[in-house]
């Protein structure tokens, strides 16, 4: 197996662990098999133990559980349009001024400008 084809995602690693748990293998056996096949891209023994325990306890999903915290809801089409309108009206507007007008953080304004509008700062010196 080539190095490129042995790079699995975390979910694929978990699916393999789940399969071996269902076959009755121990975490140590699972880890050794995965290292034998995947070499450096194999998950750590600690991760194999953790997921093997979860699957033995009845877990069926290989996906991560949702994490607590506030979801990013600021980057919306509406905000992108508003920022684009402000920037096109005044090309010298500062991030903090745009953030103040829209009541969002400077970081999100910068993300929208750079990532969603594909705009960059250009110096004409």
In short:
The chain has 125 residues and is an all-alpha fold.
Describe this structure in words.
The chain is mostly helical and 125 residues long. It folds into two domains: 10-57; 77-116, Arc Repressor Mutant, subunit A, CATH 1.10.10. The protein is 55% helix and 0% strand. It has six helices and no strands. The protein has helices spanning 10-22, 27-38, 45-56, 77-89, 95-102, 106-116. α1 (10-22) crosses α3. The longest helix is centred in the N-terminal third of the chain and has 13 residues, at 10-22. The chain is elongated and about 65 Å long. It starts with 9 loop residues before the first helix and ends in a 9-residue tail after the last helix. 15% of the residues are buried.
């Amino acid at each position: 197996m080539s190095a490129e084809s042995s790079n699995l995602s975390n979910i694929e690693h978990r699916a393999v662990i789940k399969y071996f748990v269902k076959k009755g293998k121990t975490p140590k056996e699972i880890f050794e098999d995965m290292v034998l096949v995947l070499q450096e891209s194999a998950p750590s023994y600690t991760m194999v133990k953790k997921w093997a325990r979860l699957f033995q306890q009845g877990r069926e999903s290989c996906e991560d559980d949702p994490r607590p915290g506030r979801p990013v809801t600021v980057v919306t089409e509406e905000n992108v349009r508003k920022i684009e309108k402000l920037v096109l009206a005044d090309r010298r507007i500062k991030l903090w001024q745009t953030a103040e007008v829209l009541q969002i953080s400077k970081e999100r304004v910068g993300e929208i400008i750079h990532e969603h509008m594909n705009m960059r700062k250009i110096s004409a010196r």
